[in-house]
Amino acid sequence: MALERTLSILKPDATRRNLTGKINARFEEAGLRIVAQKRAWLSQAQAEKFYEVHKARPFFGELVSFMISGPVVLQVLEGENAVTRNREIMGATDPSKAEPGTIRREFAESIEANSVHGSDSPENAAIEIAYFFAGTEIVG
Ligand code: RTP
Ligand code: MG
User: Fold this and answer.
1) Active-site residues (predicted)?
2) Tens digits of per-residue pLDDT, 35-91?
3) What residues contact residue 10 under an 8 Å CB cut-off, 6+ apart?
4) Which domain does 122 fall in, by range?
């Protein structure tokens, strides 16, 4: 199996509670390597474009407000089956439905403030990585 890459975001609820190291340890323990990482405070336009697929959903406005409410950490994770593997260790969107031991079950505050984002397909991972990172910023 070839190495795969996925885009990860540590969301504002995670940076606010100083949880970035604890969450990064989860990725590394699961065999995912952080091959790019930067802290950023997203603009409204950046967050709206990133979550464009959810534009028609009732939670879109709140989601964008939440994502720009504080700094985030943008990351590229690399490993075998990285997209699926990362979604497994993140757990379900709603932390009350996430499996015990997952990042969201352990750290998330709510269905919205759920600590992490992970790309949902290799195709979207490529688009999302290119949205935030130049090729030279990724060091595998
Ligand atoms: P993500 O894209 O952030 O990795 O999360 P996901 O695939 O598990 O969930 P998705 O359906 O793509 O939703 C994106 C983010 O929107 C917020 N959300 N709020 N209030 C609500 O009902 C609701 N539903 C989703 C969450 O922050 C979710 O991660
Ligand atoms: Mg999603």
Assistant:
1) 117
2) 999 999 999 999 999 999 999 999 999 999 999 999 999 999 999 999 999 999 999
3) 19, 20, 23, 72, 73, 75, 115, 116
4) 3-137
Q: What is the CATH number of the domain that holds 69?
A: 3.30.70.141
- DSSP β-bridge partners for residue 101: none
Amino acid (1-letter code) at residue 86: N
Report yes or no on whether pTM surpasses 0.90.
Answer: yes
Task: From 89, 114, 115, 121, give the residue whose CB has the most ligand 1 atoms within 8 Å, as the site to mutate.
Answer: 114
Q: Which ligand is nearest to the CA of 103?
A: 1
In sequence order, which ranges of the chain are alpha helices (DSSP H)? 12-16, 20-29, 44-50, 60-67, 82-90, 103-107, 122-132
How many domains in the chain?
1
Using CA atoms, how far apart are residues 33 and 118, in angstroms rounded to an integer?
A: 14
Q: Which residues contact 105 (CB under 8 A, 6 or more apart)?
A: 91, 95, 98, 99
The rounded distance, in Å, linking the Cα atoms of 120 and 15 is 22
